[in-house]
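Re: Re: ligand-bound prediction request (bumping)

Still looking for help on this. To restate: I need the protein modeled with glutathione bound, output as structure tokens. Inputs repeated here so nobody has to scroll up.
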Amino acid sequence: MSGYLKDGQWHEGWYDTGKTAGEFVRTNSKFRGWVTADGANGYRAEPGRYHLYVSLACPWAHRTLIARVLKGLEGAISVSVVEPVMTQGWSFSDALPDHLHGFQFLHQLYSAADPRYTGRILVPALWDKQTRTIVSNESSEILRMFNSAFAAFARNVVDLYPEALRPQIDEANAFVYDNINNGVYRCGFATEQAAYKHAFDRLFSALDRVEGNLGQRTWLADGEHATEADWRLFTTLLRFDAVYFGHFKCNRNRIEDFPHLSRYLRALYRTPGIAATVNMDHIKRHYYMSHAHINPTRIVPAGPRLKFMADAAD
Ligand SMILES: N[C@@H](CCC(=O)N[C@@H](CS)C(=O)NCC(=O)O)C(=O)O
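Reply:
Sorry for the wait, this slipped through. Here it is.
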């Protein structure tokens, strides 16, 4: 099960939707430091100094793994992956260890960063070995740091947030975050019919709109290459037919039923390096086995056969 730390102590507990008319309200990330090339904020970009904690199931953590691979930062930033099924929240095992501290649970990392930490224990978390703290646990900001601050150690020259496209990217991000990335969670974690239906309608009208846009252009921002806006949408689309459609009841259509969105999903999935960041087993086991209030039997569905992954294996 999931839980949180209060003054550094672990407590079991889920989000309280009783106060918000059955609506799931996401909590804010609390560690908001910034790594920069010159270290002006106390965190200088240096190879080997930072360690990224992720879940391969989590769409937010997945963005940061994608940025790390696209930039070619694998040698500069090391990674530990948590077990997909939550116990005392996110945990480690012999197969998936915490390479730095040998902790059993991710909440121990949060207590190590701040012994009085109060809040949820989220992935991703970027750990600084030098000051022994979590620099950031906000995926959108970690993604930007990987894109810019670490440029000197990046093997690939790729800009996921190019200057000229920033207004378009910012607009796409805000729309996609509210309606789609977080929209699927709002459907799945709603505890009142009206809150669910509201989130469902918003989600599918947003997908209809993106489907229309992708009929006119290749990427969300009108440039030649995919940007962070596309990768942020990708991590939700990728999980949609396997998890959100069934487990989160986002079942008006599958992504496979949208011609442009499925073309787009396949193109992003086939980008070199990306398929290796996708672990459908972790994704399915995490959602179906960690949310016992939604799926009490914890049975993980055997299907569906995902066309975009099957095609890519050809
Ligand atoms: N705004 C955060 C959200 C991260 C987040 O919600 N992560 C989820 C996994 S998908 C988590 O760790 N949840 C654990 C919990 O809520 O107890 C980000 O983008 O970094």
